[in-house]
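Lecture 7 notes: from sequence to structure.

We start with a single chain of 242 residues. Read the sequence below before looking at the structure.
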Amino acid sequence: MNKKIIEHLFAFWKQIGHNGGFIKKEKGFNSTHPSENSWPSKIFNINVDALDLKDLQQKIRSKKLPNSVEVYEQASVEKILTSNGYSLTSTLKAMALTTNGSLYGNITDSDFLQVHSEYEARLFAEVASESFGYPVKTSTVIPLYKDPAFKLFLGTYQNSFPSCGMVYLDKNGVSGIHMIGTIADYRGLGLGKKMTQLLVNEAIKNQSKKVFLVASQAGERIYTKMGFETYGVLESYSLPMN
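Now the structure, written as C-alpha coordinates:
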Protein backbone atom coordinates (compact mmCIF):
# COMPACT_ATOMS: atom_id res chain seq x y z
CA MET A 1 0.00 0.00 0.00
CA ASN A 2 2.88 2.40 0.75
CA LYS A 3 4.08 2.18 -2.84
CA LYS A 4 0.57 2.84 -4.18
CA ILE A 5 0.16 5.93 -1.99
CA ILE A 6 3.54 7.34 -3.02
CA GLU A 7 2.93 6.57 -6.69
CA HIS A 8 -0.32 8.51 -6.44
CA LEU A 9 1.64 11.45 -5.00
CA PHE A 10 4.14 11.22 -7.85
CA ALA A 11 1.27 11.21 -10.37
CA PHE A 12 -0.10 14.32 -8.61
CA TRP A 13 3.24 16.15 -8.99
CA LYS A 14 3.60 14.97 -12.56
CA GLN A 15 0.17 16.28 -13.52
CA ILE A 16 0.90 19.63 -11.86
CA GLY A 17 4.18 19.85 -13.75
CA HIS A 18 2.48 18.94 -17.02
CA ASN A 19 -0.21 21.58 -16.51
CA GLY A 20 2.36 24.21 -15.56
CA GLY A 21 4.87 23.33 -18.25
CA PHE A 22 7.69 22.46 -15.85
CA ILE A 23 7.74 18.65 -15.83
CA LYS A 24 10.99 17.03 -16.97
CA LYS A 25 11.50 13.37 -17.77
CA GLU A 26 15.17 12.42 -17.77
CA LYS A 27 17.03 9.15 -17.66
CA GLY A 28 16.20 7.53 -14.35
CA PHE A 29 13.86 10.16 -12.90
CA ASN A 30 11.18 12.81 -13.31
CA SER A 31 11.36 16.30 -11.89
CA THR A 32 9.23 19.39 -11.39
CA HIS A 33 11.08 22.69 -11.08
CA PRO A 34 8.85 25.77 -11.27
CA SER A 35 10.31 29.28 -11.03
CA GLU A 36 11.95 30.54 -7.83
CA ASN A 37 12.20 27.00 -6.46
CA SER A 38 8.51 27.17 -5.61
CA TRP A 39 6.07 24.32 -4.98
CA PRO A 40 6.37 21.57 -6.09
CA SER A 41 10.15 21.46 -6.65
CA LYS A 42 10.81 17.71 -6.59
CA ILE A 43 12.85 14.88 -8.09
CA PHE A 44 10.82 11.65 -8.07
CA ASN A 45 10.05 8.38 -9.89
CA ILE A 46 13.66 7.35 -9.31
CA ASN A 47 14.91 4.31 -11.24
CA VAL A 48 18.30 3.58 -9.68
CA ASP A 49 19.21 1.10 -12.41
CA ALA A 50 18.98 3.83 -15.06
CA LEU A 51 20.08 6.78 -12.91
CA ASP A 52 23.37 8.60 -13.54
CA LEU A 53 24.12 9.68 -9.99
CA LYS A 54 27.06 11.93 -10.90
CA ASP A 55 24.99 13.76 -13.51
CA LEU A 56 22.16 14.16 -11.00
CA GLN A 57 24.55 15.58 -8.40
CA GLN A 58 25.99 18.04 -10.90
CA LYS A 59 22.57 19.30 -11.96
CA ILE A 60 21.45 19.71 -8.35
CA ARG A 61 24.62 21.59 -7.38
CA SER A 62 24.30 23.87 -10.43
CA LYS A 63 20.63 24.44 -9.47
CA LYS A 64 19.34 23.05 -12.73
CA LEU A 65 17.33 20.62 -10.60
CA PRO A 66 15.73 21.00 -7.15
CA ASN A 67 17.65 19.65 -4.16
CA SER A 68 14.88 17.31 -3.06
CA VAL A 69 14.85 13.62 -4.03
CA GLU A 70 11.62 11.83 -3.05
CA VAL A 71 11.42 8.04 -2.69
CA TYR A 72 9.18 5.53 -0.98
CA GLU A 73 10.81 3.53 1.79
CA GLN A 74 13.39 1.13 0.30
CA ALA A 75 16.58 0.04 2.04
CA SER A 76 18.39 -0.49 -1.28
CA VAL A 77 17.62 3.03 -2.53
CA GLU A 78 18.49 4.55 0.83
CA LYS A 79 21.89 2.83 0.73
CA ILE A 80 22.64 4.06 -2.79
CA LEU A 81 21.68 7.66 -2.02
CA THR A 82 23.47 7.91 1.33
CA SER A 83 26.63 6.30 -0.06
CA ASN A 84 26.65 9.02 -2.73
CA GLY A 85 26.47 11.95 -0.35
CA TYR A 86 22.72 12.41 0.05
CA SER A 87 21.22 12.91 3.50
CA LEU A 88 17.74 12.03 4.69
CA THR A 89 16.12 15.40 5.40
CA SER A 90 12.50 14.50 6.16
CA THR A 91 9.93 11.73 6.29
CA LEU A 92 6.20 11.98 5.77
CA LYS A 93 3.63 9.35 6.68
CA ALA A 94 1.86 7.60 3.81
CA MET A 95 -1.77 7.20 4.88
CA ALA A 96 -4.99 5.81 3.42
CA LEU A 97 -8.67 5.81 4.32
CA THR A 98 -11.10 3.15 3.11
CA THR A 99 -14.39 4.94 2.45
CA ASN A 100 -17.78 3.53 3.33
CA GLY A 101 -19.75 5.91 1.13
CA SER A 102 -21.05 8.00 4.03
CA LEU A 103 -20.52 11.74 3.73
CA TYR A 104 -19.63 13.95 6.67
CA GLY A 105 -22.92 15.64 7.51
CA ASN A 106 -21.55 18.68 9.32
CA ILE A 107 -20.07 20.29 6.20
CA THR A 108 -21.73 23.55 5.18
CA ASP A 109 -21.15 24.79 1.63
CA SER A 110 -21.02 28.41 2.82
CA ASP A 111 -17.89 27.58 4.85
CA PHE A 112 -15.93 26.93 1.65
CA LEU A 113 -15.19 28.54 -1.68
CA GLN A 114 -14.25 26.36 -4.64
CA VAL A 115 -11.60 28.00 -6.80
CA HIS A 116 -13.07 28.93 -10.19
CA SER A 117 -11.15 32.05 -11.25
CA GLU A 118 -7.65 33.46 -11.52
CA TYR A 119 -8.39 35.81 -8.62
CA GLU A 120 -9.39 32.89 -6.41
CA ALA A 121 -6.32 30.97 -7.59
CA ARG A 122 -4.17 33.88 -6.41
CA LEU A 123 -5.93 33.78 -3.02
CA PHE A 124 -5.28 30.03 -2.82
CA ALA A 125 -1.58 30.56 -3.61
CA GLU A 126 -1.30 33.25 -0.93
CA VAL A 127 -3.01 31.14 1.75
CA ALA A 128 -0.93 28.07 0.86
CA SER A 129 2.33 30.05 0.88
CA GLU A 130 1.59 31.52 4.29
CA SER A 131 0.33 28.24 5.73
CA PHE A 132 3.27 26.09 4.61
CA GLY A 133 6.11 28.62 4.71
CA TYR A 134 7.29 28.05 1.14
CA PRO A 135 6.32 29.83 -2.09
CA VAL A 136 3.32 28.62 -4.06
CA LYS A 137 2.98 30.50 -7.34
CA THR A 138 -0.33 31.70 -8.71
CA SER A 139 0.90 30.60 -12.14
CA THR A 140 1.14 27.02 -10.81
CA VAL A 141 -2.34 27.09 -9.28
CA ILE A 142 -4.25 28.61 -12.22
CA PRO A 143 -3.99 25.57 -14.54
CA LEU A 144 -5.17 23.25 -11.75
CA TYR A 145 -8.65 24.64 -11.24
CA LYS A 146 -9.15 24.29 -15.02
CA ASP A 147 -8.22 20.58 -14.88
CA PRO A 148 -11.20 18.33 -13.97
CA ALA A 149 -8.86 15.98 -12.09
CA PHE A 150 -8.40 18.69 -9.44
CA LYS A 151 -10.77 20.54 -7.12
CA LEU A 152 -9.34 23.39 -5.05
CA PHE A 153 -11.02 24.94 -2.03
CA LEU A 154 -10.57 27.87 0.34
CA GLY A 155 -12.04 27.72 3.82
CA THR A 156 -13.93 30.79 5.07
CA TYR A 157 -13.94 32.21 8.58
CA GLN A 158 -15.28 35.62 9.63
CA ASN A 159 -15.03 37.14 6.15
CA SER A 160 -11.51 35.83 5.56
CA PHE A 161 -9.91 32.84 3.83
CA PRO A 162 -7.54 31.25 6.34
CA SER A 163 -7.41 27.65 5.05
CA CYS A 164 -6.92 25.73 1.82
CA GLY A 165 -6.95 22.22 0.40
CA MET A 166 -7.34 20.25 -2.80
CA VAL A 167 -8.42 16.82 -4.00
CA TYR A 168 -6.84 15.06 -6.97
CA LEU A 169 -8.46 12.13 -8.79
CA ASP A 170 -5.86 9.95 -10.48
CA LYS A 171 -6.31 7.72 -13.54
CA ASN A 172 -6.90 4.69 -11.30
CA GLY A 173 -9.94 6.29 -9.70
CA VAL A 174 -8.15 6.97 -6.41
CA SER A 175 -8.53 10.38 -4.78
CA GLY A 176 -5.73 12.01 -2.84
CA ILE A 177 -6.17 15.01 -0.57
CA HIS A 178 -3.35 17.53 -0.66
CA MET A 179 -2.19 20.98 0.42
CA ILE A 180 -4.37 21.07 3.53
CA GLY A 181 -3.15 24.16 5.34
CA THR A 182 -4.25 26.84 7.78
CA ILE A 183 -2.66 30.24 8.38
CA ALA A 184 -0.95 30.30 11.78
CA ASP A 185 -3.23 32.88 13.42
CA TYR A 186 -6.26 30.68 12.72
CA ARG A 187 -4.95 27.36 13.94
CA GLY A 188 -6.73 25.58 16.77
CA LEU A 189 -10.19 26.45 15.43
CA GLY A 190 -10.78 23.12 13.72
CA LEU A 191 -10.52 24.60 10.22
CA GLY A 192 -8.03 22.00 9.03
CA LYS A 193 -10.30 19.18 10.19
CA LYS A 194 -13.28 20.72 8.42
CA MET A 195 -11.25 21.09 5.22
CA THR A 196 -10.16 17.44 5.47
CA GLN A 197 -13.77 16.34 5.93
CA LEU A 198 -14.84 18.38 2.89
CA LEU A 199 -12.09 16.82 0.77
CA VAL A 200 -13.01 13.29 1.91
CA ASN A 201 -16.61 14.08 0.91
CA GLU A 202 -15.35 15.15 -2.52
CA ALA A 203 -13.35 11.92 -2.80
CA ILE A 204 -16.50 9.92 -2.03
CA LYS A 205 -18.36 11.91 -4.71
CA ASN A 206 -15.53 10.83 -7.05
CA GLN A 207 -16.58 7.24 -6.17
CA SER A 208 -13.10 6.57 -4.78
CA LYS A 209 -12.88 3.50 -2.54
CA LYS A 210 -9.56 4.75 -1.13
CA VAL A 211 -8.40 8.23 -0.12
CA PHE A 212 -4.65 8.83 0.07
CA LEU A 213 -2.57 11.51 1.78
CA VAL A 214 0.90 12.11 3.17
CA ALA A 215 1.28 13.76 6.56
CA SER A 216 3.77 14.98 9.11
CA GLN A 217 4.04 13.13 12.41
CA ALA A 218 1.78 15.74 14.02
CA GLY A 219 -0.71 15.41 11.16
CA GLU A 220 -0.65 11.63 11.45
CA ARG A 221 -2.23 11.84 14.91
CA ILE A 222 -5.07 13.98 13.59
CA TYR A 223 -5.76 11.85 10.52
CA THR A 224 -5.61 8.60 12.51
CA LYS A 225 -8.54 9.84 14.59
CA MET A 226 -10.47 10.29 11.33
CA GLY A 227 -9.88 6.67 10.33
CA PHE A 228 -6.76 6.96 8.17
CA GLU A 229 -4.16 4.21 8.55
CA THR A 230 -0.40 4.55 8.09
CA TYR A 231 1.36 2.30 5.58
CA GLY A 232 4.95 3.56 5.61
CA VAL A 233 6.74 6.77 4.75
CA LEU A 234 7.84 9.07 1.96
CA GLU A 235 11.53 9.84 2.34
CA SER A 236 13.15 13.07 1.15
CA TYR A 237 16.91 13.26 0.49
CA SER A 238 19.11 16.23 -0.35
CA LEU A 239 22.73 17.08 -1.00
CA PRO A 240 24.80 19.37 1.25
CA MET A 241 25.34 22.51 -0.82
CA ASN A 242 28.36 24.01 0.99
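The chain has two domains: 2-94, 100-208. Keep this in mind for problem set 3.
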